[in-house]
């Protein structure tokens, strides 16, 4: 399964991650709070590094195997 991510963005918004993972806003923030998905804030804006999302997806694949 291939997840399409915006290739021109180094940092993704929560809605972009929601779309990529097909998860709810609550679940994305839950992953962030638990430390499973790295993120940072600039002011009030939460951003997820694109490589953090790729690593999260790879980890999920490894756990499922």
Automatic annotation (TrEMBL):
Domain Helix-turn-helix: 12-60
Pfam families: HTH_17
InterPro entries per the UniProt record, alphabetical: HTH_17, SinI_DNA-bd
Protein name in the entry: Helix-turn-helix domain-containing protein
Lineage of source species: Bacteria, Bacillati, Actinomycetota, Actinomycetes, Kitasatosporales
């Amino acid at each position: 399964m291939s997840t399409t991510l915006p290739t021109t963005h180094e940092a993704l918004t929560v809605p972009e991650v929601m779309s990529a993972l097909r998860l709810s806003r609550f679940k994305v923030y839950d992953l962030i709070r638990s430390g499973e998905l790295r993120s940072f804030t600039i002011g009030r804006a939460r951003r997820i590094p694109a490589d953090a999302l790729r690593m999260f997806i790879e980890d999920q694949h490894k756990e499922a195997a």
